[in-house]
Design brief:
The complex is a heterodimer of chains A (116) and B (113). Chain A has no helices and 11 strands. In chain A, strands 2, 4, 5, 6, 9, 10 and 11 form a 7-stranded mixed sheet that branches. In chain A, a hairpin with a 5-residue loop joins strand 7 and strand 8. Chain A is mainly β and 116 residues long. Helix content of chain A is 0%, strand content 52%. In chain B, a hairpin with a 5-residue loop joins strand 5 and strand 6. Chain B is globular, with a radius of gyration of 14 Å. The chains are: A mainly beta (116), B mainly beta (113). At the A-B interface, strand 4, strand 5, strand 9 and strand 10 of A face strand 6 and strand 11 of B.
Chain lengths: 116, 113
């Protein structure tokens, strides 16, 4: 069974640009979560989608947005990039229906975003 | 609010040494607890988990026990290998908060031959 895939793996952008990252969950998984990983702040939750609906959101500015498609694939978008957005963005998928037991998450390899 | 605190790294050990990485949490109710491992250049992999008090999670020689009285979930391994070198993350999760895992800051482990 294929794991969680994320594209692209590496990305370089300049301040003020916008970026879109993609995540394909494990087949059959309907929940997709996104995390930002930086040396200073560690791993922080961005948002979670289930059945094309955002179910939970972390404490990030509105420049960070996401969506989920009917095939469970998800994208996240960051507009007006800032230097501080440089990070590893991790996507995780799970099969468990939210609210019905613990939610084992399987992570992708991440997208390394560098903002110059 | 809910939070996870791990011992600071890096932790450097010789092969076959005993490993303990401390993890304590602050939370209301009964969260599930996890240890994830991140190898260089890769995403996170679930190492082990415990969903209720006194549960012991174990995998690949690693183990951790959910101690509600001390709000701890320390990771242990009796004999580490060079291949165990990685960053280890302790995390908690509430089933009624969707996909939100709350992570500790991570502890880097380096095992020398």
């Amino acid at each position: 069974k294929a794991g969680v895939t994320q594209t692209p793996r590496y990305l370089i952008k300049t301040r003020g640009q916008q970026v879109t990252l993609s995540c394909s969950p494990i087949s059959g998984h309907r929940s997709v979560s996104w995390y930002q990983q930086t040396p200073g702040q560690g791993l922080q939750f961005l948002f979670e989608y289930f059945s094309e609906t955002q179910r939970n959101k972390g404490n990030f500015p509105g420049r960070f947005s996401g969506r989920q498609f009917s095939n469970s694939r998800s994208e996240m978008n960051v507009s007006t990039l800032e230097l501080g957005d440089s990070a590893l963005y991790l996507c995780a998928s799970s099969i468990t229906i939210p609210g019905q037991g613990h939610n084992e998450q399987f992570f992708g390899p991440g997208t390394r975003l560098t903002v110059l | 609010g809910n939070s996870v605190t791990q011992m600071e790294g890096p932790v450097t050990l010789s092969e076959e040494a005993f490993l303990t990485i401390n993890c304590t949490y602050t939370a209301t109710g009964y969260p599930s607890l996890f240890w994830y491992v991140q190898y260089p250049g890769e995403g996170l992999q679930l190492l082990l988990k415990a969903t209720k008090a006194d549960d012991k999670g174990s995998n690949k020689g690693f183990e951790a026990t959910y101690r509600k009285e001390t709000t701890s979930f320390h990771l242990e391994k009796g004999s580490v290998q060079v291949s165990d070198s990685a960053v280890y993350f302790c995390a908690l999760y509430y089933y009624n908060q969707g996909g939100k895992l709350i992570f500790g800051q991570g502890t880097e482990l380096s095992v020398k031959p």
